[in-house]
Structures are given as structure tokens and as C-alpha cells.
Amino acid sequence: MTINIQIDYSKFQVYTEYNTENFNLPLILSIPHSGQFFPEEFLKVTNRSIEELRSNEDLLVDELLSPLFNQNITAIKLNTARAFLDVNRDKIELDENMFDDYPSDLMIYENSRCRSGYGLIHRVTADGQAIYKAPLKFSEVQKRISNVYEVYHARLNELILKCVDKFGFCLLLDCHSMPSKICSIMQDDSDIDICIGDLFEQSCPVQISSLLEQNIKAKGYSVYKNLPYSGAYTTFHYCQPRKKIYTLQLEINRSLYANEIKLNHNSNFTKIQKDIVSSILETLKNIDF
To answer: Under 8 Å CB-to-CB from 243, ≥6 apart: which residues?
Structure first.
């Protein structure tokens, strides 16, 4: 048995964008993993419930950062669910075992994320349960790339170039959340509240990442740089320091602001939202580009 999905991509609103007509500040927020749109055709070929599939998403990150949209900050959010397609991966981060007709001559980058089931096309949910009932046709991943992945990244690239054209520089903040479980595993003596990834000081001047770190720490949070994440595809792909295009990956411990089981806000959501938003704005005001 092989899964051959026929998805109507005309129903997709791939992304939602904010404040993209007139850049007021040299900052772009990328929010790639908070989408909750699942194609009906996809849901028919999965073993998992929507709640199980949503365990792969960056829970409520778009809502957490939404006050920045009212501060004239430019942002782009993928609407499609992460379990369907992960745009924070390279197009060749694929697990060939997921397909019954994977081209033998096609180059892949089967790294640890792919082997764990979290490549471009997720194989498993956050708790390791198989997403698909059978192998996929390789043509399906190609359709997802052309109809979702390339659409999102083409627009993100346009926004970056537009920002650079206006200000001479751009800071791209790639916004994510991380499960509290991985934070506990990585750090035994205390939880990691916030992780700032700058590819070990390669994706932007250290003054920028350190300033954001200091502003968040000043509000009482435990902040680590490049632990447990130093940055993934977006952080690596778009950073061009010589052209003054800088990138940072921001990871927020979900347990700070949400119930990870019920997938909703906890009582601290408003406070965490205020602290994160103000830290970003304070950093932006004091960056000397």
C-alpha cells in the first residue's frame, strides 16, 4: 500500500503577513511553526488525531508575539501545520524510507533531525507515534515544496531584501517554542526558560544576541545561548553578515506560558507575553547597526 494524496492547494492561504507595506523598523519576525491548518486530504491518511499532530507545533507563539504586530513590526507566519511540512528545514532534509519511490540518484541530507523523524516531512509526532499509515509517493513531497515551502520562503526573502533596501540592514528573528521536557534533559540543575541561537556567534554580531539575552535576563528568566538550539535552516540560510543581514533563533519554554497537554494558555501567559515583547522592543531600540 502506498499513499497518493491529491490535495487542492488552491484552498491554501500559505502565510499571513503583518506590516509589510511600509517597514518602520529593521526587524522581521518569522513564525514558521505555529500554523494549525491541516488539509482534509492529509487528515484522511494519518493515524493520528489533530491534537496529536499539533504536539509538533510551536504552541501559541504567534499569539504570544502578537502585540508586536501592533507596534509596526513586520512579521510573516506560516498557516500550514508543521506536521504537514516543516519550512525550517532544507528541501533535502528527507527520510528516504518514508517514500516507496524515492529517486536513487537524488541527494539527501539525512541528519539527526531526519533520523529522529523531524525532517522536512515529519514522520512521527512529538511523542514518537507514526503519522502516516503507509509510505508516501515522492511526488507528494515535491508538491508540498512547490505549493507551500517555496511560496513561504520566496516571500520571506522578498521582505528581507525590502528591509535591507530601506535601512541598509535587517535583523531576522526566527521565533519558536521548545518543549519543557527537552529543557529538563539538557539542564539538570535548572530549567532553561529562553534559548537564543546565533550559530555560535556566526549569524549576527555578538552585541545583538547579548543585548537580547541581557534584556530577558533582567526580567528574571534563565537564558542560554545556543543550548539546546543554536539555530536551524532559517537562521543559517538567511544570515549574510557582510551584507548586514543578521539572524537569530528565539526559543521559549512552552511551560512558561501554556499547558502543554491541553494546548492552551496557562495563568502566566499575559505576563510572559509582556516580558518577551518588551525585551525585543528594548533590544531593537538599543542596537547600533
So the answer is: 164
Phi, psi of 138 (to 5 degrees): -65, -25
Joined together, the cell numbers standing for residue 21 give: 507595506
Helix (H, G, I), strand (E, B) or coil at 285: helix
- DSSP percent split of the chain into helix, strand, coil, nearest 5: 40, 20, 45
Please tell me the total count of domains within the chain: 1
Distance between CA atoms of residues 104 and 85, nearest Å: 22
Residue 8 falls within a domain, yes or no?
Answer: no
Domain that holds residue 154: 14-286
- Position of cell 513561504? 152
pLDDT tens-digit readout, 101-159: 888 777 666 677 888 899 999 999 999 999 999 999 999 899 999 999 999 999 999 99
Q: What is the DSSP letter of 81?
A: -
Buried b (16+ CB within 10 A) or exposed e, 55-68: bbbbbbbbebbbbb
- CB contact at 8 A, 231 and 40: no
Flag whether 39 is in a domain.
yes
Bridge pairing between strands 194-197 and 74-78 = unpaired
Helix (H) or strand (E) holding 265: strand 264-265
Cα separation, 74 vs 31, in Å, equals 11
CATH of the domain at 111: 3.40.630.40
| Contact between 61 and 101 (Cβ < 8 Å) | no
Per-residue pLDDT tens digits for 166-202: 999 999 999 999 999 875 555 555 689 999 999 999 9
pTM recorded for the entire structure? 0.94
**Domain assignment of residue 121, yes or no:** yes
- Residue 6 located in a structural domain: no
